[in-house]
Amino acid sequence: MTTPIYFGNRSITTTGSVGVGTTNPSSFNLQVVGTFGTTGDITAYYSDDRLKTRTGEITDALAKVKSLEGFIYRPNELATSFGFENGQHVGVSAQAVQRVLPEAIRPAPFDTDTVQGVKVSRTGQEYLTVQYDKLVPLLIEALKELESRVARLEAERPPQS
Question: Residue 138's domain is classified under what CATH number?
Fold first, then answer.
């Protein structure tokens, strides 16, 4: 086994993983510690319907959205101990999202490593993160449910004279 190649606080591992801001990239092909910017789009995964076998519908979307709480927060001491920068952010709770849409939850990248081909929690605490893009289908279905309610109410409303 050959050793990783280091470039200051960047590295390329023998498995081909690239780390920026870290000499020990986790189980991702590219791991950036800190923020990064791009002047172009970021394209990931796939959306083409020809590549999908639908297995169900998102039901009770409005109730699920109503159960979530958006809030403003600052990283606590535990988060800053993992290298997260202090500052004000907006977000949701991964645990709350997991209860209504578990498909939108993944292990937090900072806490993920690969051991013998298996992704594991580095800390044993199994920290979570929200894939915010995966919330969009839930929001679409919630809006459709809300529009249906509005249309029903408008149809029941007596004509105004």
Answer: 1.10.10
Rounded CA-CA distance 106/103 in Å is: 8
Classify 119 in phi/psi space as left (phi over 0), alpha (psi -120 to 50) or beta.
beta
Half-sphere exposure of 21 (CA within 13 A, CB side): 10
Those residues with Cβ within 8 angstroms of residue 99's Cβ, 6 or more apart along the chain or in another chain = 67
| Residue 40 domain-assigned (yes or no) | no
Q: What angle do CA 127, 129, 130 make, to 5 degrees?
A: 155
Does some domain include residue 96?
yes
Picking from 107, 101, 142, 103, the residue whose alpha carbon sits closest to that of residue 124 is 107
Task: Read off the pTM.
Answer: 0.78
Q: How many domains does the chain have?
A: 2
Q: Residue 80, SS3? A: helix
Placement of tokens 């800190």 in the chain: 34
pLDDT tens-digit profile of 41-84? Answer: 777 778 889 999 999 999 999 999 999 999 999 999 999 998 88
Backbone angles phi, psi at 25, to 5 degrees: -60, 145
**Residue with token string 């189980």:** 27
Range of the domain at 17: 1-34
